[in-house]
Amino acid sequence: MNQNDPHATQPILHAGAALESAPMAMIMIHGRGASAEDILGLSQEFNRPDIAYLAPQAANNTWYPQRFIAPLESNEPWLSSALARIATLIDHVVQAGIPHERIVLLGFSQGACLTLEYAARNARRYAGVIGLSGGLIGPDDTVRDYPGSLADTPVFLGCSDIDAHIPLPLVLGAAEVLKRIGGEVETRIYPGMGHTINQDEIAYVRGILG
Protein backbone atom coordinates (compact mmCIF):
# COMPACT_ATOMS: atom_id res chain seq x y z
CA MET A 1 0.00 0.00 0.00
CA ASN A 2 1.27 3.43 -1.00
CA GLN A 3 1.26 5.50 2.20
CA ASN A 4 0.78 8.71 0.19
CA ASP A 5 -2.16 7.32 -1.80
CA PRO A 6 -3.47 4.37 0.21
CA HIS A 7 -6.66 3.72 -1.76
CA ALA A 8 -5.19 3.90 -5.26
CA THR A 9 -4.72 0.18 -5.84
CA GLN A 10 -7.70 -1.14 -3.89
CA PRO A 11 -10.29 -3.19 -5.83
CA ILE A 12 -13.58 -1.95 -7.27
CA LEU A 13 -16.54 -4.33 -7.11
CA HIS A 14 -19.34 -4.31 -9.69
CA ALA A 15 -22.93 -5.51 -9.67
CA GLY A 16 -25.90 -5.11 -11.98
CA ALA A 17 -25.53 -4.30 -15.65
CA ALA A 18 -22.32 -3.77 -17.58
CA LEU A 19 -21.37 -0.12 -17.92
CA GLU A 20 -21.52 -0.37 -21.69
CA SER A 21 -25.21 -1.29 -21.64
CA ALA A 22 -26.50 0.43 -18.48
CA PRO A 23 -28.68 3.56 -18.70
CA MET A 24 -27.36 4.75 -15.32
CA ALA A 25 -24.58 4.05 -12.84
CA MET A 26 -24.42 4.26 -9.07
CA ILE A 27 -21.17 4.68 -7.17
CA MET A 28 -21.56 3.26 -3.67
CA ILE A 29 -19.18 4.22 -0.83
CA HIS A 30 -19.02 1.98 2.24
CA GLY A 31 -18.60 3.03 5.85
CA ARG A 32 -15.72 2.63 8.30
CA GLY A 33 -15.03 -0.99 9.14
CA ALA A 34 -17.28 -2.21 6.32
CA SER A 35 -16.46 -3.24 2.78
CA ALA A 36 -17.34 -2.66 -0.85
CA GLU A 37 -19.16 -5.98 -0.78
CA ASP A 38 -21.32 -4.79 2.13
CA ILE A 39 -22.53 -1.59 0.47
CA LEU A 40 -22.91 -3.30 -2.90
CA GLY A 41 -25.44 -5.65 -1.30
CA LEU A 42 -27.75 -2.65 -0.84
CA SER A 43 -28.16 -2.47 -4.61
CA GLN A 44 -30.47 -5.49 -4.46
CA GLU A 45 -32.99 -3.35 -2.56
CA PHE A 46 -33.42 -0.96 -5.47
CA ASN A 47 -34.95 -3.49 -7.91
CA ARG A 48 -33.01 -2.07 -10.84
CA PRO A 49 -30.70 -4.79 -12.18
CA ASP A 50 -30.29 -2.78 -15.38
CA ILE A 51 -28.18 -0.17 -13.55
CA ALA A 52 -24.41 -0.53 -13.16
CA TYR A 53 -23.38 -0.45 -9.48
CA LEU A 54 -19.73 0.15 -8.60
CA ALA A 55 -18.24 0.10 -5.10
CA PRO A 56 -14.60 0.96 -4.40
CA GLN A 57 -12.86 -0.68 -1.46
CA ALA A 58 -11.05 1.44 1.15
CA ALA A 59 -7.61 0.42 2.33
CA ASN A 60 -7.89 -1.28 5.72
CA ASN A 61 -11.68 -0.76 5.48
CA THR A 62 -11.47 2.93 6.34
CA TRP A 63 -11.40 6.00 4.08
CA TYR A 64 -9.71 8.26 6.62
CA PRO A 65 -8.44 7.56 10.15
CA GLN A 66 -10.06 10.22 12.36
CA ARG A 67 -13.69 11.30 12.80
CA PHE A 68 -15.22 13.35 10.00
CA ILE A 69 -15.35 16.41 12.27
CA ALA A 70 -11.59 16.27 13.00
CA PRO A 71 -9.26 18.90 11.49
CA LEU A 72 -8.87 18.16 7.79
CA GLU A 73 -5.09 17.79 7.99
CA SER A 74 -5.44 15.01 10.58
CA ASN A 75 -7.17 12.83 7.97
CA GLU A 76 -4.54 13.30 5.28
CA PRO A 77 -3.30 11.82 3.00
CA TRP A 78 -6.15 9.32 3.32
CA LEU A 79 -8.90 11.83 2.63
CA SER A 80 -7.31 13.18 -0.54
CA SER A 81 -6.65 9.62 -1.69
CA ALA A 82 -10.31 8.71 -1.12
CA LEU A 83 -11.61 11.74 -3.01
CA ALA A 84 -9.22 11.00 -5.87
CA ARG A 85 -10.46 7.41 -5.97
CA ILE A 86 -14.03 8.58 -6.49
CA ALA A 87 -12.90 11.01 -9.19
CA THR A 88 -11.06 8.26 -11.05
CA LEU A 89 -14.08 5.97 -10.84
CA ILE A 90 -16.42 8.66 -12.15
CA ASP A 91 -14.03 9.32 -15.04
CA HIS A 92 -14.12 5.60 -15.84
CA VAL A 93 -17.93 5.60 -15.88
CA VAL A 94 -18.09 8.69 -18.10
CA GLN A 95 -15.56 7.21 -20.53
CA ALA A 96 -17.79 4.13 -20.77
CA GLY A 97 -20.58 6.36 -22.08
CA ILE A 98 -22.62 7.28 -18.98
CA PRO A 99 -22.65 11.06 -18.44
CA HIS A 100 -22.41 12.71 -15.02
CA GLU A 101 -26.12 13.53 -15.01
CA ARG A 102 -26.85 9.78 -15.13
CA ILE A 103 -24.55 8.93 -12.19
CA VAL A 104 -25.85 8.57 -8.62
CA LEU A 105 -23.37 9.00 -5.75
CA LEU A 106 -24.39 7.13 -2.60
CA GLY A 107 -22.65 6.55 0.70
CA PHE A 108 -23.37 5.35 4.22
CA SER A 109 -21.77 6.71 7.41
CA GLN A 110 -18.11 7.48 6.71
CA GLY A 111 -18.93 6.79 3.08
CA ALA A 112 -21.80 9.29 3.25
CA CYS A 113 -19.47 11.97 4.57
CA LEU A 114 -17.04 11.23 1.75
CA THR A 115 -19.83 11.23 -0.85
CA LEU A 116 -21.22 14.58 0.30
CA GLU A 117 -17.77 16.16 0.49
CA TYR A 118 -16.88 14.91 -2.99
CA ALA A 119 -20.14 16.25 -4.45
CA ALA A 120 -19.62 19.64 -2.77
CA ARG A 121 -16.04 19.94 -4.00
CA ASN A 122 -17.00 18.76 -7.49
CA ALA A 123 -20.39 20.38 -7.86
CA ARG A 124 -22.19 19.72 -11.12
CA ARG A 125 -25.39 18.00 -12.20
CA TYR A 126 -25.59 14.37 -11.07
CA ALA A 127 -28.54 11.98 -11.17
CA GLY A 128 -28.53 12.09 -7.38
CA VAL A 129 -26.36 12.49 -4.29
CA ILE A 130 -27.39 10.26 -1.38
CA GLY A 131 -25.91 10.75 2.09
CA LEU A 132 -27.15 8.07 4.48
CA SER A 133 -26.07 9.12 7.99
CA GLY A 134 -23.40 11.65 7.11
CA GLY A 135 -22.31 15.27 6.90
CA LEU A 136 -19.64 17.37 5.24
CA ILE A 137 -16.07 16.67 6.34
CA GLY A 138 -14.22 18.99 8.68
CA PRO A 139 -14.82 20.80 12.00
CA ASP A 140 -17.58 23.35 12.57
CA ASP A 141 -15.44 26.31 11.51
CA THR A 142 -14.47 24.82 8.12
CA VAL A 143 -14.88 27.37 5.33
CA ARG A 144 -17.50 26.01 2.93
CA ASP A 145 -16.84 28.21 -0.12
CA TYR A 146 -17.26 25.43 -2.64
CA PRO A 147 -17.08 26.50 -6.31
CA GLY A 148 -19.54 25.34 -8.93
CA SER A 149 -23.20 24.37 -8.77
CA LEU A 150 -25.06 21.13 -8.26
CA ALA A 151 -27.54 22.48 -10.84
CA ASP A 152 -30.68 21.14 -9.14
CA THR A 153 -29.23 17.68 -8.50
CA PRO A 154 -31.55 15.73 -6.15
CA VAL A 155 -29.69 15.48 -2.82
CA PHE A 156 -30.95 13.26 0.00
CA LEU A 157 -29.78 13.43 3.61
CA GLY A 158 -31.21 10.84 5.97
CA CYS A 159 -30.11 10.35 9.58
CA SER A 160 -31.30 9.55 13.09
CA ASP A 161 -31.78 12.42 15.50
CA ILE A 162 -29.71 10.54 18.09
CA ASP A 163 -26.95 9.05 15.91
CA ALA A 164 -23.89 8.71 18.12
CA HIS A 165 -21.54 9.03 15.14
CA ILE A 166 -23.22 11.85 13.21
CA PRO A 167 -24.30 14.92 15.24
CA LEU A 168 -27.65 16.18 13.98
CA PRO A 169 -26.55 19.84 13.66
CA LEU A 170 -23.89 18.76 11.16
CA VAL A 171 -26.46 16.95 9.02
CA LEU A 172 -28.64 20.06 8.99
CA GLY A 173 -25.61 22.23 8.29
CA ALA A 174 -24.64 20.07 5.34
CA ALA A 175 -28.17 20.40 3.99
CA GLU A 176 -27.90 24.21 4.06
CA VAL A 177 -24.52 24.20 2.32
CA LEU A 178 -25.69 21.81 -0.38
CA LYS A 179 -28.80 23.93 -0.96
CA ARG A 180 -26.62 27.01 -1.28
CA ILE A 181 -24.60 25.41 -4.07
CA GLY A 182 -27.66 24.40 -6.04
CA GLY A 183 -28.81 21.06 -4.69
CA GLU A 184 -32.49 20.14 -4.49
CA VAL A 185 -32.10 18.89 -0.93
CA GLU A 186 -34.45 16.50 0.85
CA THR A 187 -33.58 16.06 4.54
CA ARG A 188 -35.29 13.35 6.59
CA ILE A 189 -34.52 12.96 10.28
CA TYR A 190 -35.75 9.74 11.88
CA PRO A 191 -36.53 9.90 15.62
CA GLY A 192 -34.80 7.26 17.69
CA MET A 193 -33.34 5.34 14.74
CA GLY A 194 -30.02 3.57 15.13
CA HIS A 195 -26.98 4.03 12.91
CA THR A 196 -28.51 2.19 10.01
CA ILE A 197 -30.41 2.45 6.71
CA ASN A 198 -34.20 2.22 6.72
CA GLN A 199 -36.88 1.41 4.18
CA ASP A 200 -37.95 5.04 3.74
CA GLU A 201 -34.44 5.91 2.59
CA ILE A 202 -34.40 2.96 0.21
CA ALA A 203 -37.76 4.06 -1.20
CA TYR A 204 -36.39 7.55 -1.87
CA VAL A 205 -33.45 6.11 -3.82
CA ARG A 206 -35.80 3.92 -5.84
CA GLY A 207 -37.78 7.05 -6.69
CA ILE A 208 -34.85 8.96 -8.15
CA LEU A 209 -33.80 5.91 -10.15
CA GLY A 210 -37.15 6.11 -11.96
Describe it:
This protein is 28% helix and 19% strand. It has a 7-stranded mixed β-sheet with strand order 1-3-2-4-5-6-7, with helices on both faces. The model has no long low-confidence stretch (mean pLDDT 97). By secondary structure, the protein is α/β, with parallel strands linked by helices. The chain contains 5 helices and 7 strands, in the order E-E-H-E-H-E-H-E-E-H-E-H.
Coarse shape: globular
Number of helices: 5
Q: What is the helical fraction, as a range of percent?
A: 25-40%
Structural class: alpha/beta
Over all CA atoms, what is the radius of gyration? 16 Å
Fraction in beta strands: 15-25%
Instruction: Give the termini distance in whole angstroms.
Output: 40 Å
Strand line-up across the major sheet: 1-3-2-4-5-6-7
Largest sheet: 7 strands, mixed
- Helices and strands, in order, run as EEHEHEHEEHEH
Average residue-wise pLDDT: 97
